[in-house]
Design a protein that fits this description.
Number of strands: 7
Largest sheet: 3 strands, antiparallel
Strand content: 5-15%
Bound molecules: s-citryldethia Coenzyme A
Structural class: mainly alpha
Radius of gyration: 23 Å
Number of helices: 18
Order of helices and strands: EEEEHEEEHHHHHHHHHHHHHHHHH
Length: about 425
């Protein structure tokens, strides 16, 4: 703890402890504020509020730094695999070869879903948004695993964590297959986590499916880039749901629902739709003007961030990966040129410079995913697939944190003060 924070209210002089982390802003511990002053703090959107302590991920928004258990995202994306990053987030250290093999084997052995789960898809229309299907089917998992719902048993928490990480690719692939009217494929345990997902998504029973190593590597890197991100909206949703002791599968379904919003994970779908709407670079100035127009709700999707006030380091890796995938698949996409030009014009426009609006993780991801063959409606599903390890790691950390209790924010009440009921005949 460093110096205390002085606070004066209604003639009272109070001091609150200032706590320091290993890096990043200090926090003022105001847990006793209401008891001592009768006042709440007021922070809509939690722009100045730390909801918890965490050892998982650190972001320096001004420097454009993202660390997972201390390791920079650029190094993890270039040198590790998604399975390694999953192990790192869950256990705190990078695995040795034996630990990684055991972890990958464990995850692989949980990739199948209960055969009854396939029935849940049949109730959806074929044109249902895949994120709607993910909310429903992942929530339904909470009805299937009564052997691992004692969240205070570390073993049961780990089994539920492994099941969620393992089954999300299977369910995501099933959501895609259902939308295109093709049969579900079972997992193939001889493939990597990411190769297995690509085969379940793009393979058909009628012929063998060859995993393209360049696509597998790019997809695995995209999963790494989306794995975790401090206390973002969907992670905070999972933590709040989990703080009541709710079923872990239901908590992840709540996170999926929150991620779907276009201001959050839904931005990758919205960003590609925006690039399609812009079409050619000649129309970019018109859209930049709309984004700057206070009377126009339009925003440049894939731009801006609550924390990053510099370049999102994930966008840097994502842009590089676009070039690699295009080269590997020998494809060109004029939308990529439009995206590059849009970034260049926006980053030289005073409005975006002053408001520190840079491309975020969602700006380029759609261009790659589209080149690989995913429909736009699947983009946020892929984000949810990758973020599941972050949600699960944060959920485990929340449950084992002695400071944690059920989340219950207060409010500034501005409604009517007490008044008496007026009988209907007198109104
Ligand atoms: C993700 O939190 C996370 O970590 C999220 C995420 C993760 O990994 O979990 O990183 C994933 O959600 C990335 C963000 C994806 N969303 C988008 O790309 C949607 C477009 N971006 C915006 O909606 C916005 O930038 C947010 C929601 C991302 C951040 O909003 P804030 O921090 O609440 O900031 P704000 O909305 O108050 O904006 C500040 C100013 C405003 O202008 P003023 O009212 O001050 O005049 O910047 C403007 C905004 O109008 N602004 C934009 C803009 N983003 C913000 N103007 C035009 N285009 C934009 N994209």
């Amino acid at each position: 703890m460093t110096e205390a924070a002085q606070f004066a209210l209604s003639g009272k002089e109070l001091e609150y402890p200032v706590l320091s982390g290993s890096v990043g802003p200090d926090v003022v511990d105001i847990r006793k504020l209401y008891a001592q002053t009768g006042a709440f703090t007021y922070d809509p959107g939690f722009t100045s509020t730390a909801s918890c302590q965490s050892k998982l991920t650190y972001i320096d928004g001004d420097e454009g730094v993202l660390l997972h258990r201390g390791y920079p995202i650029g190094e993890l994306a270039e040198q590790s695999t998604f399975m390694e990053v999953c192990y790192l987030l869950l256990n705190g250290e990078l695995p040795d070869q034996g630990e990684l093999d055991h972890f990958s084997h464990t995850i692989t052995r949980h990739t199948m879903v209960h055969e009854q789960l396939a029935q849940f898809f049949r109730g959806f229309r074929r044109d249902a948004h895949p994120m709607a299907i993910m909310c429903g089917v992942v929530g339904a998992l909470s009805a299937f695993y009564h052997d691992s719902t004692d969240i205070h048993d570390p073993q049961q928490r780990m089994i539920a964590s492994h099941r969620l990480i393992a089954k999300m690719p299977t369910i995501a692939a099933m959501a895609y297959k259902y939308s295109v009217g093709q049969p579900f494929l079972y997992p193939d345990n001889s493939l990597s986590y990411t190769g297995n997902f690509l085969r379940m998504t793009f393979g058909v029973p009628a012929e063998p499916y060859e995993v393209n190593p360049a696509v597998e590597r790019a997809m695995d890197r995209i999963f790494i880039l989306h794995a975790d991100h401090e206390q973002n909206a969907s992670t905070s949703t999972v933590r709040l749901a989990g703080s009541s002791g709710a079923n872990p599968f239901a908590c992840i379904a709540a996170g999926i629902a929150c991620l779907w919003g276009p201001a959050h994970g839904g931005a990758n779908e919205a960003a590609l739709n925006m690039l399609h709407e812009i079409g050619t670079p000649e129309r970019i100035p018109e859209f930049i003007a709309r984004a700057k127009d206070k009377n126009d709700p339009f925003r440049l999707m894939g731009f801006g961030h609550r924390v990053y006030k510099n370049y999102d380091p994930r966008a840097t890796v994502m842009q590089k990966t676009v070039r690699e995938v295009f080269e590997a698949l020998n494809v060109q996409d004029p939308l990529f040129e439009t995206a590059l030009r849009l970034e260049e014009l926006a980053l030289n426009d005073d409005y975006f410079v002053e408001k520190k609006l840079f491309p975020n993780v969602d700006f380029y991801s759609g261009v790659i995913l589209s080149a690989i063959g995913f429909p736009t409606s699947m983009f946020t599903v892929l984000f949810a697939l990758a973020r599941t390890v972050g949600w699960v790691a944060q959920w485990n950390e929340m449950i084992t944190d002695p400071d944690q209790k059920i989340g219950r924010p207060r409010q500034l009440y501005t409604g009517p003060t007490q008044r008496s009921y007026v009988p209907l005949t007198q109104r």
